[in-house]
Amino acid sequence: MSLILDMANISLNFHDKSILSNISLGVSAGEFFVIIGPNGAGKTSLLKILSGLQKAQQGSVTVKGKNITKYTRRNLSQILAIVPQHIEVGFPFTVADTVIMGRSPHLGILGMEGKEDFHIAEEAMNFTEVAHLADRKLFQLSGGELQRVIIARAICQQPEIILLDEPTTALDPSHQLKIMDLMERFRRQHSTTIIMVSHDLNLASMYGDRLMLLKEGRVVKTGDPKTVLNKSLLEESYGCQMMVDESPLGQVARVTPIPHKYQHI
Amino acid sequence: MFIHKPKTHIILTLVLSFMLQTGGILAGPVTDQVGRTLIVPENPTRVIALAPSITEVIYSLGQEKRLVGATQYSTHPPEAEALPRIGSYIRLDIEKIVALKPDLCLATKDGNPKHIVDKIVSLGIPVYVINPRNLQQIMDTITRLGTLLHAERAAVELVADMEERIEQVQALVKKARNKPRVFFQIDAEPLFSAGNNTFIHELIELAGGINIAAGEDSYPRYSWEDILVLQPEIVLISSMAGGLSPEYLIKSWKRWNQLSAVNNDQVYVVDAELFDRPTPRLLDGLELVAAIIHPELFEKNIKRTEN
Amino acid sequence: MPIGKKIIFTTLLLSIVLLLSSIIAMSAGSSGTHFWETLSILTGNSDPGSVTATIIWQIRLPRVILAAFVGGTLALGGLVFQALLRNPLAEPYILGISGGSAIGAILAMLIGLSYFPGVAIFSFAGSLLVLAFVTTLASTTLGNTMLGKDSLLLGGVMMNAFCAAVIMFLISMTRSFQVQHILYWLMGDLATIQKGQLSILFLLFPCFIIIFVLSRPMNLLLLGKETAAAMGINVKKIVLLLLVITSLMVSIIVSLSGLVGFVGLVIPHIFRLVLGPDHRILVPSCLLGGASYLILCDLLARILPSSGELPVGIITALIGAPLFIILLLRHRT
Questions:
Q1: Whether B185 and B147 share a structural domain
Q2: Does the predicted model carry a pTM greater than 0.90?
Q3: Quick check: B98 and C31 CB within 8 A?
Q4: Would an 8 Å CB–CB cutoff place C127 in contact with chain A?
Q5: Dihedrals φ, ψ of B285, to 5°?
Q6: CATH number of the domain encompassing residue B249
Q7: Is residue B9 part of a domain?
Q8: Domain A1-64+160-239 has CATH 3.40.50.300
Q9: Minimal Cα–Cα distance from A164 to chain C, Å?
Q10: Residue range A202-232, pLDDT digits in tens
Q11: Which of B22, C195, C228, C254: disulfide with C220, CB 3.0–4.6 Å?
């Protein structure tokens, strides 16, 4: 299967401090790829490099066979969409305003949105179930609703790849599942590649096709969830005791960090 | 050579009287006091004075009937207050000026904004600019305005009167046995005085005193420290200094017992208008200063706190 | 209503408002109010040689034109800086333009130069110098090459404060009659208008057009540098272009009119409240709305006092400050 995104030997330094060393990563089209690792492992920086927002000192990133630096921002944004962790809600844009901004990469310089664009935005809002909030201002939304609005905006870009930075961290369980199911459904319908950074090992296990475990800027392991979610690898990377077993829901690994009071010996 | 041919004589007389009666005819080009050449009306009947001093001079020449407008502080003589106002002399109101339909504007280089003067000229209204920097030039200004406004005789008399008064002062001052050091305060908080190229300087020197503030800087600034070192013998304070009351101004001097001027009760507040306007009233100022500096020579009765 | 139609409708409406404001402003002044006479003069039905015609065409019209450009530019400048700095309290002088231009203007006045071109040139130069300093500072701090808004803001505020101290020093050295000229300039004053200035004003049109063309990117800039980049904007280029164009046009205006305040801060807020945050509507609205606003403020400056006239900056402050407080209170709730 062709690689839609290929990262080779990426190293990133910042003020003499090594953030990432020698990372190589190949993602196939339509894959659901999850990057996990402890805080400070460099996951967000990795995402920034994948999206072209940050330049690495060494190595290269290729998107659809072409070096990422050779893309104009506009062309790249027609292929790649980003769902960041936090967004600023300083100015009083409505949900509808925000979602339709996702059409920007496809509009001309003065960019008047046409019927087609409004249609796409409407579909995106229906898909993420925020259509009933169309006229609300952003600062009136809850965390989960806001996240879905941003995803709707990303969908409007009609991207081939969606990058998400810890999309579920501040959400309650039902909203977490909602977001993940949305991504899963979108991927199935449009064969979109999903690359996600996550703290939640179990969601990664249940949804990811392949995982990458990162620690201190280095790859510990890349592979399918069962391989990467290995007890000793996890304990070494996260520095706490873990229990890894098979989930009662099916053939997926289940990870449980063990609090001190449950530790024997 | 007189023309004895009666016919021509009659025709000339008719033409001349015709010209003199219709004010709209323009006389030939004249040169104003700043060297500009312009064409002025033969008989200006709608004159606007763009500075209080100009208004004063016109009244002194007896030509106030020609005036149709004046600046805000044209308060001397009191009759001038009835004239329509056209703004202040540093912020002229061009709309009001144009609305009065003047046939001649009289401006001063010192203070009138050039861009407004240029604008008036561009609208086809002649502007005659004066720029008297000393007594001699003031007399020249009076002569010029006399010619412009057909008051030559009044101008000659006025100038002669001024010259006579100056000569009188000079003659008396010659007999003086000393030359006191004078400090003339024009602004307060901080203190400012008047140096070279000011009327005040000229008047003090003419009156037989030494202007402590003499120097290249026309408006030098002083701190009280400087004053204590300079030790003026006579202190004259402009009534407009800092916009403060005369009592306050004198009090601020009385604090310094170390000053001979204070100890000898030689601190006076004087009427600002006699010292900063280029008009014949400067001679009132001259005589006042002379009487203060050399009381033994002048009979003028002066009060200690006011002019 | 689709955005295109909304823009056209708003622009037409505000253009009519501008026209009306101009006519009203031309029909009143220190020599009296002549509304119907003005209309007949403007439509060519009256004697063009009359005194009123001269007053209207030669004295009031240039003033109205200047007021329009000053108001429009300042409102637009405020809008752009609020977007660039993602800060609703930004105003067009915030990057040091007020400090730099004031020092230049005061120095020119102290050496006795005339308002135009002397003071104007010095003021423009002063503004550019301070701007160059602030932007250099902002682009070299923390190795940040994207002209981070916080460094810009900080640098600008610092320079304005420093310049304010220098200005105080310069004022303390001047005589009282000069101080009045300086104060009027600092407050913003359209009375010093001269013919040559009007031709310079037409240089501003390309600036307005470029900014309008960049309205959609400005919308995206509000989302943050990285999000904007992720949606296809070349952030560095756009920010630099907007910064340069807007600084230039505000500097030009300040060199002609002094520091008229509260227009760049209040007008964008009012229109944002009424029309929403889309810059494609806000750009023409602020331009036309700001122009009308200042024309009317200048009218008040000319006719309110019984003698003389106020500097227009006093009127904009007296109206603008309470207006801004009301806006702030509304925004809270």
A1: no
A2: no
A3: yes
A4: no
A5: -65, -45
A6: 3.40.50.1980
A7: no
A8: yes
A9: 12
A10: 999 999 999 999 999 999 999 999 999 999 9
A11: C228
